[in-house]
Every structure is written in C-alpha cells, then in structure tokens.
Amino acid sequence: MRGQVLEIDCVYPDIAVPALRALGLFDEVALYGSLIHVVAEDLESHRPLIGETLREKGAGVRSMDLIPPSLEDVFISSVGGTLAKVGR
C-alpha cells in the first residue's frame, strides 16, 4: 500500500464520503465503521481542503488524524488494485 491514511470522524459520514470522492484527489475514500479513511500521498497538504470541503457540506467534523495503515487498509488497497486490473 502506498500513501498515508487520514482517519476522519464526523457526524455525517454519509455526506462526507461522496464529498471527498467528488474532489478526485485521493486513491481511496472508504467507510470503516463510523470512521472514514482517506488514502493518498502527502495528505498533510490536502488537510485544509478536506476540512473546508467537509465544513461547507455540513459533515460535522470531530477529528482528522493521520494514522498508520491497518491490515484492513492494506487488504482493501490490495484487493482494489486487483479488481481494477480484472475489470479492464
């Protein structure tokens, strides 16, 4: 898995996930329970845009923290890449 993982806790993840995906900047935006994981290179530089986008959409951000990738993050990244290759 390449990139960093930003874990976002917000009141309305159902609003946040599509808003983040619409930015088209991230390798992955996925819901992990009630938390959102955003995967991309250099997420620190995207933090202001992420925060602004989620505030504008009214997602109610509680926290945004860079975290080490979990085994689930690595698995999903691996399977996602495989599925993308199969679908071509």
Provide an overview of this structure.
The longest helix is centred in the C-terminal third of the chain and has 16 residues, at 71-86. A 4-stranded antiparallel β-sheet has the order 2-3-1-4, with helices on one face. Helix 1 (13-23) crosses helix 2 (43-57). A hairpin with a 2-residue loop joins strand 2 (28-32) and strand 3 (35-40). The chain contains 3 helices and 4 strands; from the N terminus they run E-H-E-E-H-E-H. The protein is an alpha+beta fold. The protein has one domain (4-86): Alpha-Beta Plaits (2-Layer Sandwich). The radius of gyration is 13 Å and the shape is globular.
List keywords for this structure.
single chain, 88 residues, alpha+beta, Alpha-Beta Plaits, four-stranded antiparallel sheet, 4 strands, globular, disordered C terminus
